[in-house]
Amino acid sequence: MTEDYNCVRIVRYGELLPCRTAFIDTHTPGSNLKENFTIVGGGVSENPDQHVHIVDKPGFNIGAAGQPPKCHNSLHSHRTAEVFTVLKGKWRFFWGRWGTAGEVVLEQGDLFNIPTGMFRGFENIGQEYGMLQAILGGDDAGGGVVWAPQVIEAASDHGLVLSENGKLYNTGKGEKLPEGVSPMPLLTESELEQFAEPPIASVVPGYVARRWDMVARSTKEPARVIGRNGMIVDRPGFDLDFLSERTDAQHYNCKYYEVFLVREGHWRIGFAGDSEILAPGDTCLVSPDMERSLEVAVSGEAGLLRVRGNDDPAGPTWKP
Fold first, then answer.
1. Do residues 16 and 50 touch, judged by C-beta distance below 8 A?
2. In the CATH scheme, what is the homologous superfamily, with its name and number, of domain 212-309?
3. Which letter does DSSP use for residue 248 in this model?
4. Closest listed residue to residue 223, CA positions, set 179, 263, 256
5. CB contact at 8 A, 231 and 224
């Protein structure tokens, strides 16, 4: 259920509705236990029946992936930004044509702005169910997902076929591609050569923000993570700030959409003479051109990401 206050929409963590058949690898062993969530915008799901909690189009999409230990997400690429933040657990991110070009481990509160133009995957390497949230550039999330050829081939072995228009069909349930619609073609070798395989040294320093570093930079003013003079070098079509218990209370107006993602603690959002308390995992969208306030509601450790639209294009954020 989404709490709707005309200009403010809130999705509670405990009310998120998962989809277990969102992508082509949903039947592939090792990936078949993952859950996908579409929180803000249409996302990139290949299942048209996936529930969208907030349908507004703020210029970016926000989704989530929940996975038990040892469950992984298969190698894929996006045409626009894909920024991950760890809500729960310990995760390994890897990249390259076969996932062997480089890797980095992220823990709760860390953030990774994965460069476009390369294949990436991730897995839960913790001991408990983990949760990631992802921010995708653009209202249409860049036109979908580009899968490594071996992912499409493995899915076919388990009855799933992706059509050229990005819709998923389960042949195990008797589904067939419509007449005149072909399967998604595999990338050719020449096309695959266009996907970069950068070493760790050229990815991690400029694209990963650790929670402890964001906390250290959030004294009085929010820490600028993505945007002009941000910790991360890209400009992916949205700005992102981090607020902690060290940050002064915020009272302001904004001409862009904003989304608040609570990491730790409890936060009070004020709007139009009303207020709500946000808890860890909650998502709150605030429409443009309205007064708002934001402050820690309960003393103690607290963390919150503020995603804000801007006038930047949501195109490729990095090229080899």
1. no
2. Jelly Rolls (2.60.120.10)
3. P
4. 263
5. yes
Residues 273/318, Cβ–Cβ less than 8 Å: no
* Residue 158 burial class via C-beta count within 10 angstroms: exposed 0-12, middle 13-18, buried 19 and up: middle
Render 5-23 in DSSP notation, one character per residue: -SSEEEE-GGG---BSSSS
Alpha helices by DSSP H, listed for the chain, are 149-157, 189-192, 200-207, 211-216
320 band by pLDDT with thresholds 50, 70 and 90: very low
What is the per-residue burial (b if ≥16 Cβ within 10 Å, else e) of 28-66? beebebbbbbbbbbbbbbbbeebebbbeeebbbbbbbbb
Averaged confidence pLDDT in the chain: 90
Cβ of 11: how many Cβ atoms within 10 Å? 22
Topology agreement, domain 17-208 and domain 212-309: yes
Give 9: exposed, middle or buried? Use CB within 10 Å, 0-12, 13-18, 19+: buried
Are 145 and 162 a contacting pair, CB within 8 Å?
Answer: no
Is 70 exceeded by the pLDDT of residue 259? Answer: yes
Amino acid residing at 242: F
Residue 108 has pLDDT above 90, yes or no: yes
The architecture in CATH of the region 17-208 reads Sandwich (2.60)
pLDDT at res. 46: 65
pTM of the model: 0.92
Question: Could you give the 3-state DSSP secondary structure of residue 154?
Answer: helix
Instruction: List residues bridging with 168 in a β-sheet.
Output: 162
Mean pLDDT over 9-14 rounds to 95
Residue 60: pLDDT band (50, 70, 90) is very high
The domain ranges of the chain are 17-208, 212-309
What pLDDT score was predicted for residue 143?
54
